[in-house]
Amino acid sequence: MNKKKLVLSAMAVLATVSLAACSSKSSSKSSSSSNNGASLKLSSAYKNTKATDKTADNNSTLKVAEANDSPFQGISDTVLATNAEDSDVFSPGGGDSLFNVDKNYKIIDGGLANQRINRKAKTVTIKLRSNAKWSNGMDVTAKDIEYAYEVVANKNTTSQQYSSDFNAIKGMAAYHAGTAKTISGITYPDGQKGNTAVIHLTKITPSMKFAGNSFIWSTVEPYEYIKNVPIAKLASSTQVRKDPIFTGPYKLDKVVEGESTTWSTNKYYYGKTPQIKHININVVSTNNIVKAIQSKKYDFTISSLGGTSYKQLKNVKGYAKAGQPALAYSYFGFNVGHFDTKTNKNVMDKNSKMANKNLRQAMMYALNVDQVYKKFGNGITWRANTLVPPVFQKYWDSSAKGFPLNVKKAEKLLDEAGYKKRNGSKWRSDPNGKKLVIHFGAMTGNSTSAAEYQDYLQQWHKVGLDVQFTGGKTMEMNSFYSTLQAPKQSKIDIYAAAWSTSSEPTPTQLYGVTAPYNMGHFVSKKNTQLMAEMNNSKSFNDKYRTKIFKEWQEYMNDQAAVAPLSFSYNWYPVNHRVKGYDVSPANTEFWSSLSLTSSKLQ
């Protein structure tokens, strides 16, 4: 599901990528309370004061649920994973993140590696700790730092993480184009098997101070373990699917394809020794997750639950609630072009069905998203006004209006653009008088998401647009994304999806010219210019950078090729036997800090 560099939560650790998130987690209520629009506030930690039961830690299994309506794909490699569900189920392995961060996601010392930025020399130096090892006992090396860039940028890679921002690394553009076999701008002062890599750049940007930025990749790849697997086949390899290795607190014992992962402690982990010896993570459908928690089958969910679940579970016995504003948003995307596999660039098609800006804006103004979220959101989700979530307080434009319900405006926009009812038809035809059927792609979810989708269809029908589900029904998640991620497709005209975003808000990896994640293929000179200006030399002045971010939000709302749908609050039910639970960004030892106060769920 989802973008480029990102952090899902302390649980999923700092992913260096943006991921697609299933959008079936439901909606919410429009509110102006607090500083981000949320109508409730939860603590990021459950402060359990009971004594730890060492016997339970040693002999019991932490039971974790991943609420999702599809099997997870099973791609353990952070560079190659494209959805948040894979990140979730493999998160006890640590995500192979290089850096520790503070509460604002700023990189600090103390992780697998430390980072030093030299603005004058235009270099970023990454130095591994001396005891950095993989879960099979192999040393983590400087080549492991560099190889992640090769996997991201190889012309045959299946990774979705590449964007033009990486071209700031010297030699990266040539490697990505296939005209160079190595990335000349990454060097090893003490050799490939040493612990230091130096990245030489054409520019230093303010975003590089934060994990998840779109210039410096934040995870490592086990080069010696995977070097004999062609990069094009890496995502399907045994090393990634069945027997992956990690740098985090737990090692993988078993994966049941699409269903579960099982973990035990990693004796080679450099950090805090995990207290709980065993972890199981199981996929549970969103229709069954409430009953599963009520029946005390799981200690907590690793995936955030939606508003309907919050209403049903907020007072459930034996559980506390924890949460924080989400590094995520849901959105509507329009198919306006294709991805040129020869040039590796997104291309707008001026003759595409959804190319008309009036049509796109009208479809958004026709929706009563505030009412939908008031009914289903329960304070967990509310209508989004831009494509920057409010967790980024500096850069989010709180004054933007987004697309509140305005049926008259929707009808006027359609009339002005020539989308009119002709010959007594109940449906509008296109400006050339041809029949217009718009195909809506939506992922299968729970009963709430089904009700939301029906409301959207109803509203579009009210303004005379014949909008139908692609294939006549909602789509299984993996099928949905495989359709959208095809270089060119005509099955989906508009789709509802979600991003689990990076901890640094630069959107190049989602909406850039070269971004594979730009699944609607919207491209313009102004969009490219604004995103570049977010990280030019002037942007070290934060007032200037904030101004550019707000200009970009205004521009994207005007173009409506990607339209904001909802913001949300990540919340998790936590069983009373769990101790040390804290999903704040600064808690980079999430899994290691957990312990149990009882051998049985409370």
Present the secondary structure layout.
Layout: E1 7-9, E2 13-14, E3 18-21, E4 45-46, H1 54-59, E5 61-67, H2 84-89, E6 100-101, E7 107-108, E8 113-118, E9 123-128, H3 142-153, H4 172-177, E10 186-187, E11 196-200, H5 223-226, H6 238-241, E12 250-256, E13 260-265, E14 278-284, H7 289-294, E15 300-301, H8 307-313, E16 319-325, E17 328-334, E18 337-340, E19 345-348, H9 357-365, H10 369-376, E20 381-383, H11 407-416, E21 437-441, H12 447-462, E22 466-469, H13 477-484, E23 494-500, H14 508-511, H15 525-533, H16 542-559, E24 562-575, E25 578-579, E26 581-582, H17 590-593, E27 595-596
Parallel strand pairs: 5-14, 5-15, 21-22, 21-23
Antiparallel strand pairs: 1-2, 3-23, 4-26, 6-7, 8-9, 9-11, 10-11, 12-13, 13-14, 16-24, 17-23, 17-24, 18-19, 20-24, 25-27
Helix pairs in contact: 9-11, 15-16
